[in-house]
Amino acid sequence: MVGNMDTYMMGTLRVHRIGFGAMQLPGRGVMGPPRDHDEAIAVLRRAVELGVDHIDTAEYYGIGVSNGLIREALHPYPENLVIVSKVGAFRDDKGGWLPGQRPDQLRSGVEDNLRTLGVDQLGAVNLRLTDHPQAGEERVALEDQLAEMVALRDEGKIAGIGISTADRAQVQQAIDQAGIVCVQNAFSLVDQSDADVLDLCHDRGIAYVPYFPLGSAFPNTPKVTDNAAVRAVADRIGATSAQVGLAWLLAHRDNILLIPGTSSVAHLEQNMAVGGVSLSPADIAELEAGVQS
Ligand SMILES: NC(=O)c1ccc[n+]([C@@H]2O[C@H](COP(=O)([O-])OP(=O)(O)OC[C@H]3O[C@@H](n4cnc5c(N)ncnc54)[C@H](OP(=O)(O)O)[C@@H]3O)[C@@H](O)[C@H]2O)c1
Questions:
Q1: Whole-number percent of the chain with pLDDT over 70
Q2: For position 106, which CATH number holds?
Q3: Which domain holds residue 191?
């Protein structure tokens, strides 16, 4: 069983394995103010109260909404709080997701995060890759993107560099060129297609921070909580389906750090209690067989 206070290193920073993802805090479509502002503030304060010392965010969640809520709820920040953000994308007025991979865009992305969060340095920043340059724009070489991230780290604006939505070759390049501290890719019990990158990170002692650990809030992605095997195990052991999905991740590899996203204090409390959920080898075998069938 993984205790709530178990930790893993993100570069030089030690964080609890159960953290929090701030993407569910803004309004519908990750745009605009939250449906319930007070609940969003309560989620953030309760997360820290329950031991969260790793919050994942982005300036483009909202736009600026997640960062603003984090600052409002938690500033001045606890000394041990590691805030991780990401750059490489931005949003248009209608909430469309656009790539922003040019070095000047990566730099202004980091600077926007520093300003809206009210910090001098970010714990880590993920370079979020996209494979669709905007019309009329050249694809930006990964080497040039990583070089800008290294420059930002050398200047002290970020403590560690991460990479996100990257394949194995891109992760290897980032390890070699930039000495990354974390990888953020989609991975969950019901979507294990990124297992090769997880294994690479595990071998190299790099934190692997799965996004969509429950299958996301987006329609058309498989949901961990809808899976019949997950429900059966949850019923048998007296846990919720979300807890079973998160407990499987914690048990799967010790370099996995959780950042489940929620806009609800009740769900947050459930997710934080996953440290008390114990899966037996038979439960794990049943889950893994169940998601393949
Ligand atoms: N690097 C990237 O490109 C990238 C991409 C996507 C996300 N991320 C990060 O990864 C984090 C996690 O991903 P995500 O938030 O998209 O998806 P997720 O954590 O897989 O799922 C979030 C969804 O699960 C629901 N949920 C959470 N806890 C629950 C519980 N205990 N019981 C039932 N439902 C529950 C949430 O609804 P409620 O709000 O109702 O609880 C929401 O609909 C994000 O918050 C963000 O920080 C990074």
A1: 96
A2: 3.20.20.100
A3: 7-219+252-276
